[in-house]
Amino acid sequence: LGRLIPALFALNPDFLPDCQPSVEALYRISLTALHFTANGAIIPQIVQTENKNFIIRWLPAMIDRRVKSITEKLAALLPDNLLLIKKTVRKKEQLLQVANQTVELLSLFISTFVRQLSLLKDDLFENLFFQQQKYAFGGIAEDALSGGIKVWLDRYYLTAEQFKPVITVSETPTDDFEVSILVEDATQPEQVPTPLKDVLQLQQYEQHRFKILQSISLLTPFVRGLDTYINLGGTTPVLFDLNEFTPFLLEILPAIRLLDIKILLPKSLQQLIHPKISMRLKKKSAGASFLRLDEMLAFDWQVALGDQLVSPEEFEKLFTNASRLFKFKENYIYVNDTDLERLHKSMTSEKPMSAYELLQTALAEEYEGATVSLTDEVRAIITDLTSADNIALPQGITATLRPYQERGFSWMYKNSRIGFGSIIADDMGLGKTLQVISILLKFKEENAINKKHRALVVAPTGLLTNWQAEIAKFAPSLSTHIFHGTQRYLKNFDADVMLTTYGILRSDHELLKKQKWQIMIIDEAQNIKNQDTAQAKAVKSVPANIHIAMSGTPVENRLSEFWSIMDYTNKGYLGNLKTFTEKYATPIQVFNDNHAIRKFRKITAPFMLRRMKSDKTVISDLPDKIEQNQFATLTKQQAALYQKTMQAAMEEIEGIEGQDNQTLFKRQGLVLQMIMALKQICNHPAQFLKDKKYDATLSGKCELLFELIDSITQSGEKVLIFTQFTEMGAMLEKFIAEKFDDKPLFYHGGCTLKQREEMVQRFQNNRADRIFILSLKAAGTGLNLTAASHVIHYDLWWNPAVENQATDRAYRIGQKQNVMVHRMICKNTFEEKIDEMIQNKKHLADMTVVSGENWIGRLSNRELRELFC
């Protein structure tokens, strides 16, 4: 356990679905045990081992109903046989299942936490309880000590008996309080508890009377006067005046309740009110004019008494003495010096409330856990912020946006108009890029993007050409400039949109800060998740009127990553990282605090849009299969090798003369050889050169593949990667294992039937196996791989029928998810031109029935030049 517990807490909880069920189960057990320990929901138990030693172990406090409920729910989630016990049966050792493995596992973890959180002392009993020290109690006069410990611990188990005491409190007309004892029969929970005086008199309790009195006597150290109450036959209740009752209510009754003893309080005491600082939010004076929504709010301090707010002056009048209980309307309020000091400090603080803090308070409708009051004007402002109005799409957009995409566009546009940035965190495949391009075009048509104020897009290197192609396709009136390579000068920048990479921005941020930017967009925003990196600091240093972040995985490991991205889009909105960690990250990640989760969602919802493909309101807008071209850029080495190989091949092809069948056959063979060579170069230079330089950075396609895999796996989804080359599949297996520290499955012709069956079973049923590389020939048909929601064609066959057959390994009967198909194409190569030709001539029969690229071999020299050069 000493090694297991740190390993479990090192796991990213977001990725638990990818782990083995047993690992996920142990993680849940460890977290539950930690929560029980942190909240004191644990009880000790003395047990004797086989060698006559005594030890103290710690158990979840099943006497607490919440603990019992949580433990029962946990038990329903756990797989069988997580914990086995070794026993000798008929002289043979056997592993047997434990009767209640959930409680036993929780006990193991809780006892470990108790031992790790305490120090070894010189005291026997402290070490017995807190260090799991063993002791036989075999010394002189020690025989009774173990029994004494058991008797002392019996109060933790008194409610395990059939008859349980119930404490009842009632008010008197003289403002005193009466305490009485009732007795409840656990076998008849619906029956009204019986007063103690009846238990002592009625014959039906005669056999149980001693046991009942023994249980009640365990409470005498807690309740002053309980002995007298019992001796008087339960006829005269224990009486408390207000001053005596206050510590009894606040200190004694909570301890008794922890023993799972029911306490019946009058309605006025069931919700004891502690005053809290609160506020009344209002709109600033009507005479002021504001462009930013967060600058429109003002407030007055209030005191929250439950759900009711009173002014500080009214609160002063309500009480005359601190540190006491007093009645307010139908409930009791408890005020002590600490409450008063905290209220006074808050209301007299010279530190002003920031505009962002006021906006968060208005969105959450609470301040430090207390309800706040909103004027009708403020409520109208918040309603307007959180409502979805449709904004007219730009006229020049050459695409039909789906309804959810139109909503995303309108949401980003609206945020920009009231002075806020946006995080668009739609799931991969929902078209974030198209929505953002629509915003850019809208700004251009409104002259917000002009000669003085341009747009800046920052993306991973592998996505630059994708952005350029998408803008040209969907917004042809937007001009673009790629700021990359060695010749980078702002004087050459004369376009609406600059496209650059994170690496370039990190190097040239001082230069880029000189340009005035209307809007700055970062794609794959998780690249700035670590706020202390030079890259994140460089991105945040570039000023722009509007900031937009795009990410399918805004939180990969911890909430501090989300803070970093929000710090880019709306700097200062979530405060500094230390404050954010204290208020949200720790309560949510460590303690699963539902209140903190709800508040976090309320204050971030207006500025982050997250839609999932699994959402029925979104999925109804989507086809079952979505195809998308992914454009890669050749590296310098690839480009040089490509040009040299292509020119040599074309010269040889053009040198062939004659039209007889043998000559035509030879020519066609040379064309197919050229295609094969260029395709291998586009995949990776080492595949063509056979030089064994297995370095993923030498291939632009590999770099783009890593971007895709990262997004897919971070979303907890699975992917099939098809290649027609077994050699390339082996290289991808090596590259992916090195990059992601996770060896993928690889299905190819050299695998035995048993290996193939095992791989399919693993991919379909094992959550940890998320990446499956497949040879197109070996796995293009017949397999059922519906666990995948993404299919990547690393190299294309240029036969739609063959592609579809491969895609149908995932897109088939039994598939419950949308399937995203990614077709990888190298920009400015024959791959792009051939794909464009196929898309334009898809209706031609010979394009779908002939095998592979044979049709290309029949093109003329001129057509080949157009296609390859």
Shape label: globular
Oligomer: single chain
Mean pLDDT, as a whole number? Answer: 86
How would a crystallographer describe the biggest sheet? Answer: 7 strands, parallel
In which range does the helix fraction lie?
40-55%
Strand content: 15-25%
Task: Tell me the total number of β-strands.
Answer: 30
Low-confidence stretches: 287-291, 843-851
Number of helical segments?
35
Rg over CA atoms, rounded to whole Å, is 36 Å
Instruction: List the strand order in the largest sheet.
Output: 20-21-19-22-23-18-24
Q: What structural category characterises the helix and strand content?
A: alpha/beta
Instruction: State the distance separating the first and last CA atoms.
Output: 64 Å
List keywords for this structure.
alpha/beta, 35 helices, 869 residues, 30 strands, 6-stranded parallel beta sheet, 17% strand
Q: What does the secondary structure layout of this molecule look like, with pairings?
A:
Layout: H1 4-9, H2 21-38, E1 42-48, E2 54-60, H3 65-77, E3 84-89, E4 92-97, H4 101-117, H5 124-130, H6 143-153, E5 163-171, E6 177-185, E7 194-195, H7 196-201, H8 209-217, H9 226-231, E8 238-240, H10 242-257, E9 262-264, H11 267-270, E10 276-283, E11 297-305, E12 308-310, H12 312-318, E13 324-328, E14 331-335, H13 337-348, H14 355-364, E15 366-367, E16 370-371, E17 373-374, H15 376-386, H16 403-417, E18 422-424, H17 432-445, E19 454-459, H18 464-474, E20 480-482, E21 497-501, H19 502-512, E22 517-522, H20 534-541, E23 546-550, H21 559-569, H22 577-589, H23 594-604, E24 608-609, H24 616-619, E25 625-632, H25 636-654, H26 661-683, H27 685-689, H28 700-714, E26 719-723, H29 726-740, E27 745-747, H30 753-765, E28 771-775, H31 776-779, E29 790-793, H32 800-807, E30 819-826, H33 830-840, H34 846-849, H35 861-868
Parallel strand pairs: 5-9, 10-17, 18-23, 18-24, 19-21, 19-22, 20-21, 22-23, 25-30, 26-28, 26-29, 27-28, 29-30
Antiparallel strand pairs: 1-2, 3-4, 5-6, 6-7, 6-8, 10-11, 11-12, 13-14, 15-16
